[in-house]
Design a protein that fits this description.
heterodimer; A: about 350 residues; alpha+beta; Cytochrome-c3 Hydrogenase, chain B; three-stranded antiparallel beta sheet; B: about 120 residues; alpha/beta; Beta Polymerase, domain 2; 3 helices; about 30% strand
Chain lengths: ~350, ~120
Amino acid sequence: MGNRTIVPFGPQHPVLPEPIHLDLVLEDEIVVEAIPRIGYIHRGLEKLVEKKDYQQYTYVAERICGICSFMHGMGYCMAIENIMDVKVPERAEFLRTIWAELSRLHSHLLWLGLLADGFGFESLFMQSWKIREQVLDIFEETTGGRVIFSVCDIGGVRKDISFETLEKIKKILTDVENELEEAAKVFIGDTTVKLRTKGVGVLSKQLAFDLGAVGPMARASGIEMDLRSQGYAAYGKLDFKPIVDHGGDSYARTAVRIGEMFQAINLIRQCISLIPDGDIKVKVTGNPSGENFMRIEQPRGEVVYYAKANGTKYLDRVRVRTPTFANVPALLETLKGCSLADVPILILTIDPCISCTER
Amino acid sequence: MGQQILKEIKINDLLTEVLKVKNEGYRLVAITCSSKEGLELTYSFDKDYELLNFRFEVDTETEVSSISALYPYAFLYENEIKELFGANIKNISIDFNNTLYKIPVKTPFHMKSSELEVKHGK
C-alpha cells in the first residue's frame, strides 16, 4: 500500500463555478476515496414557504439557481397547478417548452465552456460562451432578463412571444446551430480532448442505476431515462427520443450533452411551427389543498418538486430534489481509481450545480 | 405523467417494503420529510416512470432504520433530514453527524420561522 495523503479540493478551485469541498484520499497520485463536504451556500429556501405565499414562492423557486432558473419556476408552478387542477392554456405550454429548451441549450453551452476551461482549452471555452450569448439575448428580448426571467406563473406565463419574434428566434438558432457544429467537431474529434475524456471516469450502466444517477450522467451510461418522454408541458406533442450513449465515460457525457443541444434546437423549431394562438394564462383563485410530486427534466437531470398545501395561502412544505443532489454519489464512485489530474474533469462531467444541491 | 401511488406503512415495515421494491427494480428518487406536530417521512421510488411512495409518521425520539444498506445513495437524503428536521435515523452508511450543511441552529426546519428569528436575535 502506497503512502496515503488527503488533499483538499475546493471549496475554491478554478474549475468550480460554485463551492463544494472534497477531501481526496490519495495513494501516490491515485484517488482511493473522496469525502464530500457541502453547505457553503445552503440558504434554507424551502423554509421560506412559511413566509411567502404560494404565488410569491414562484419567485423564490426561480432563485434556487441561476442556470436552471426557468425550469425551477416551471416545476414549482406545475406542482401547484396539479394540486389545484388548473388547466394551463396550450399556447402557454408551448411557450414554457420553448423557454425550457432554450434554458437547456444555454446551460449545456455554459457547461461546455467550463469543460474546455477545465482542460485548459481557453479559446474553446470563450467560443462556447460566445455562442451562449446569442441564447441569453433571446431571453432578454422575450422575457426582459438574461438569467432570472420571472416569466412562469401559476396558470400559465406572464409574457407572450410575437410571431415576428418567433421567426427571429428561428434565424438566430440557425446561426447557433452552425457555430455549435464547429465547436462540437473539436469536442468530439480533437485528439487532446479525447485524451482527457475517453476512458476517464467510467460509470457502468448497472452502477449508474445502483447509485441513482439521473440526466446526462445516466444516459451516457446507457440508461434511457428522460422525464420529457412523459409528455408534460408541450413535450407530448413533439417528436424526439432521449439521447443515449453507452460509453459511460466523460467523453460519452460530453457527446450526450452536445446531442441534447442539437435536439433542443430541433424541439424549439417544432414548438414554433406547432404553437397555437390563444391565451397565455388562466386566472387562478383560491388556495391549494393537497399534495403533488411533479418531476421534470432539467438540463442536469430529473428534478422532483413536492408541494404540500393545507387550504391556506401558505404551503405546509415545498421540497426540491435536484439532479446534482442525486448525482453526487455517482461522482464519488467515478473519482475512485482516477488520477488527481482527472479530478477537475470528472467533477465537471456531472455538471454540478451546487446552488441547486444545497438550496 | 406517470402514476403516483401513496402507501401508508408502519415504521417497522420500512426495510421490508424497501427490500421488496429494490428486488422489483425500483430506484430511489427522494426521501422527503415534513413536520407539523411530528415528522412525516415519505420514501419515493420510481420504475418506468411510476412513482411509488411509502409514508409513515414518527417523532424525533423514535429510531428510524437507514435504508443506505439497500440504497447506498440514500445517505445524502438521510443526513439532510437528520440535520434539518432532527429525525433519529440510525446506521447511515456515511453519517455526517449533523454537519452536512453546517447550520449554526439545530433542526431549523423543525421549528417555526418566528422561533428561528428569536434564536438569531432578530
